[in-house]
Amino acid sequence: MKKLTIISSVILSSLLILTGCGSNSSKKSNVTSKVKVVKQSSSKKSQKGVARKKSGSLWNNDKDSHLEDFMKQWGEVMNQTYTKYDGTNNIQTASGMNYPQDFNSATVNGQNVSMAWDKKGTGKNDYNVVAIYNYNKSSSSSITYAFTLADGEPIVLVNEDSGNNWSETKNKSLKENFVNIFDGKATHVEKPAASSSSVKNSTKGTEDRGGYVATPEAMRGTWYSYFNGNMDKLVVSEYEMTFTYNLGKEESTRHIILYKNLVNKSLDNNASETEKESKKDWYSGWYEDYNGIKFLRIRGMFEQGPGDHFSTHEEEINGQKVPLVLYGIGANDATDFVYYPSEDLAKQQSDVKYGDIDYKF
After folding, report:
1. Helix, strand, or coil here: 180?
2. What is the DSSP letter of 187?
3. Each residue's pLDDT tens digit, 277-296
């Protein structure tokens, strides 16, 4: 009798399970369809998005500022000027759309989706738009990018036609750098491959300076250093560097263009103030090795002394390997300032001294 009771219980449980599966079949179908719209390509990607959501690492002002810096650089490389959505006034595109207002009727790859402006990226839409950039190519055509978080994953959508249909961008630089910004890593802007004639034109007038000196690829991007309550920024591109210093309420900028054979005129008493001003951005650049570490050294055309030096470095912070830029002043290889890939990290680590870095102070 006991055996019959157990068998009856098992049969009853099975029937209940089958009944439940049948009643939920339509709901399961809808969920599957939604996942396809968001274009989750693998289980690993989905798991990664869930992990990011749990960590609370979504969108903030720091990342938004980093994206703005990147889009400015990227736009210059592409010879395009992008307008950023200010969070209040709709962007009116030359093709006749108004964003974010018109997201309510947008499609992605021809499929209906829920797409909406969401500053923090934590909404329940298929695509939570955290930034919008638009470039009007002509009076009737435009390129609009929507930087979105879809189920916790950073995805860049583009609209390049006269309608309101979007698709994931195929631009490798945009895709990779948006992920880097989302993850708090440095960005890297590559110039498109140039023809021999365009290279010749780009170096015209620099023959007396020996052409340009290229920065290390790992150093290119936007970096931050927090010191004495001020946030400094360093932007490095292929041949140029720009410092932005915040001294209290005042902000100053130092722009650097790196040349190979720049004649040092620091002791030239005949140099006029006009010449010094017109060539204040001209710097000599060269590489030196200190104890197996490769340094980029720079010195202004009218500056005396050994100049400044830079190197790339890596430290483990909060369980993750983080790239850094080390900046020093003087003949030795000692470090004066450490630059981080995000403002948050720069503030968080401002008082930290690493055992494998030779600090000057």
Report:
1. helix
2. -
3. 889 999 999 999 877 788 99
